[in-house]
Amino acid sequence: MADTIIVGVTDAAASRRALDWAARRARDLGRRIVLFSVVGGAVGAVGEDDIVAQVVDATAARLQAVAAELAASGLDVAAEVANGDPVALLVAASSDAELLVIGGEPRGRGHRGQHGARIAAGAHCPVVVVPEPGDAPRRGVVVGVDGSETSSAAIAFAATEAERLGEPLTVLAAWLPVAVPGDFGVYPDVYLTDLEGITRAGAERVAAEVTERHPGLEVLTDVSEGDPAQVIGDSAESASLVVVGSHGRSGFARFLLGSVSEEVVAHLAAPTAVVR
């Protein structure tokens, strides 16, 4: 199902926005959508099986109604309801998907925010986490780069999305001096200037490569001093989409995001794609 977008559907406002985001992408690219809901929370109490069965049936009916509405607009849509752990089931479903789209909440706003980070870390395909609707005008795709192979995958995804949206792509890089414990004093100006120059040269090199591959795309660079997650978060306030990389892992480590991508997802300001 390489041409399939899976959408995790819940009753949250962010989930509805995630579905709208995925439907637009499916229309733009001719993709199939699978609506995926999970009924969880069972603990094995007496009589629980009957209750779970009723909830599954009710959820399936609601999901089929949403699928019918989308199908009427011309989309290829399927619906699936499962019972169990939402994180494990969505991660498993992602193994055959091109993209997984879920609603997300910032850290401290409930378990869905925690689920979003774990799903993004464990998924086998890129994941887009969409926050609750906001009023801020948005334009442009922002991709955080650091020169790693992980960045390369994120850059390719971001450029494709910017072209699809018809919006500019900003290659964003942040730099910080080496952290020194104690009273170190003032960093030499030449060190700071060189550090900024190295970072800027890297961002400009990436921008040039993207322009070569996507000649019709407007590509910008933004180089700032500061914590990368904070710098990306500031740019996310007005972006249509933020893209960050995540290191591919196996086993338990698969459910751990890198520090930058984890912080960006934890403080959602815009739809955010995590690409491994």
Task: List key phrases describing it.
276 residues, alpha/beta, Rossmann fold, 2 domains, 10-stranded mixed sheet, 44% helix
Provide a concise account of the structure shown.
The protein is of the alpha/beta class. It contains 8 helices and 10 strands.
Q: What does this 3D model show about the protein?
A:
This protein has a ten-stranded mixed sheet with strand order 3-2-1-4-5-10-9-6-7-8, sandwiched between helices. Mean pLDDT is 87; it is low at 249-256. The chain is globular. The protein is of the alpha/beta class and 276 residues long. The chain is built from eight helices and ten strands. The protein folds into two domains: 4-130, Rossmann fold; 141-275, HUPs (Rossmann fold, 3-Layer(aba) Sandwich).
What's the order of the H and E elements? EHEHEHEHEEHEHEHEHE
CATH architecture of the largest domain: 3-Layer(aba) Sandwich
User: Structural class, from helix and strand content?
Assistant: alpha/beta
Classify the fold: give the CATH topology of the largest domain: Rossmann fold
CATH class of the largest domain: Alpha Beta
Average predicted local confidence, pLDDT: 87
In helices, the fraction of residues equals 40-55%
- State the total count of DSSP E strands: 10
Uncertain residue segments: 249-256
Tell me the major beta sheet: 10 strands, mixed
Looking at CATH, the homologous superfamily of the largest domain is HUPs
> What fraction of the residues are assigned to beta strands by DSSP?
15-25%
Head-to-tail CA distance between termini: 18 Å
Question: How large is the count of helical segments?
Answer: 8
Q: Radius of gyration over alpha carbons?
A: 20 Å
